[in-house]
Amino acid sequence: MSEETVPTSQAAALMAVLALEEREPDVFVGQTPRTRMQRIFGGQVAGQALMAATRTLPEGRAVHSLHSYFLRPGDPNEEIRYAVERMRDGRTFSTRRVVAWQRRADKDAAIFVLTADASAGEAAVAEHSLPMPDVPDPESLPSFMDLMAARGETRVSRSLGEAVEQRLLEHPWDRPPKTYPNTKSWAWMRVSGQLPDDQPVHAAALTFASDLSLLGAGTARLGGGWGKTAGSSLDHAVWFHQPVRADEWFLYETDSPAASHGRALCFGQIWAADGTHVATVTQQGLIRSLE
């Protein structure tokens, strides 16, 4: 997909990335839209790997958790091969391990590894969830592009991240330093356009979106944005509590309980617009000074 032929629907652009080609049994290939970035966005690789895992699951089983590690930066000019290992198919649970490979020089190199667990679900014995915070509605908040324009930023991004519309409760660059316990940040998100009525697609799209802003929680106590620091994801985990529609507004709360030795641990909680607690996310990332 070239920058000159960007689909009219951002949802269609995301679906083109999530629609993997099965080259051989349990081996899937994913493509990357043409980009000016020197490395692939981590959420893309995580979303594609999750799609590869779900393509091998027995009917009626949905992924309830994933755990992953980013091993090497992904090259956007090379296709990604996702090899799925069927580790378990029990009476009620299935486990899949996915390794993402890219060609480097004259050999293959693993760039990402994911383990996902799936089940058909059972009758709830214990059932509870976090209440959604009381925040303004997304329609009352400026879009990310509005905030860009307010700063005189006229460049239009053609990155895949634009597939997710964001409504922020605070300016991502001009926020003051946060002090405990008020270190949380919130943003409304949704995929721009309509996705198919397919829960694995929505889970993969939510996984993609969950990597867009989470590491920013690691610098929230410093204030400002990413102008003085740079970060990269080291690992990423998602627990799906309830089915979700990623093309409808969901609230993403982020926070960072600890940071040391150049690494920040970040937590995320996600609610559907009706207040349903749909997912929990964790990520550890590398943060380095640019000064």
How is this structure best described in words?
It is a single chain. The chain is mainly beta and 291 residues long. It has 4 helices and 12 strands, in the order αββαββββαββαββββ. It has helices at 10-18, 42-54, 144-150, 199-210, and strands at residues 21-24, 27-30, 62-70, 80-89, 93-104, 107-119, 164-168, 185-191, 229-240, 250-260, 263-272, 277-289. It has a 12-stranded antiparallel sheet with strand order 1-2-4-5-6-3-9-12-11-10-8-7, covered by helices on one side. α2 (42-54) runs antiparallel to α4. The radius of gyration is 19 Å and the shape is globular. Mean pLDDT is 89; it is low at 1-8.
Keywords summarizing the entry:
291 residues; 4 helices
CA-to-CA gap between the ends?
Answer: 36 Å
N-to-C order of helices and strands: HEEHEEEEHEEHEEEE
The portion of residues forming beta strands comes to 35-45%
Radius of gyration: 19 Å
Number of strands: 12
Ranges where pLDDT stays below 50 over 5 or more residues in a row are: 1-8
The average pLDDT is 89
Spatial arrangement of strands, main beta sheet: 1-2-4-5-6-3-9-12-11-10-8-7
The number of helical segments is: 4
Shape, principal axes of CA atoms: globular
Structural class label: mainly beta
Characterize the main sheet: 12 strands, antiparallel
Report helical residue fraction.
10-25%
